[in-house]
Design goal:
single chain, mainly alpha, two-stranded antiparallel ribbon
Length: 251
Amino acid sequence: MNAAAWAVLLAALVTGWVVLDGAVQGAGATLLQERDPDGSDRRREPAERRVVLAAVGPLLLPGEVWLIAALGVLVGVFPHAEADLLNAGYPVAITLIASWALRDAGIWLRSRRPGHVWRDVWDVVLVVASIVLAGSWGALLGVAWGSGLAALGLGILAVVLTRLHGDAVVAWRLRRTGPLPVVVTSVMIAAPVVGTAIAAWPRLIEGGISAQALETLGIVAIVVLPVVLALQVVAWWLVSRPLGRRDMLFF
């Protein structure tokens, strides 16, 4: 695999994470409130929150596998590009990592103790962390464009798109709609990643490691990629099923 092939793989891995985890981010951001058909907002009951999290829960861990694989490619194949990105957007990257950790903690800890106060506190943490995670991810894409204005715009856009995507996946899982809205929001949420990859392509390729090292890492990719793809298939198979009682055991 040459540098161009690795760059395509990196973009594909990041896109996979955005589509999977974007649904979790969007569902988390709207966990406490739901928009009624008349356009007004209402507060979700605790049982409804469990249903929302269970609807997107199967996408959480497979999505993080995509992200970890993407980070491995970025650090291992394009170290100069990774260093430039961190130097330019270090605060944004730290915010992203911190909000990612808090978002996951909120999902896994909210139901681990009885009591409304414990759950409500973690639900608020989950909502805030989900919004910050989406915004910081979009801002990091803007950093890759080399523009503060792009960072602001893409941060806001990411928050909006993840909310739409999360709503679409939850509605599909609850059989309120068909799969078409999920396909549309998946394309929408992936578009900024693809656009950023195209814009950063020359700098990314120039920051690649030697051809010999690329060939060695290609062997690793042959072993790892089938596992990642298998997790993707399993994740969407789980989400395509009607939501059942078993899905809510962990939430």
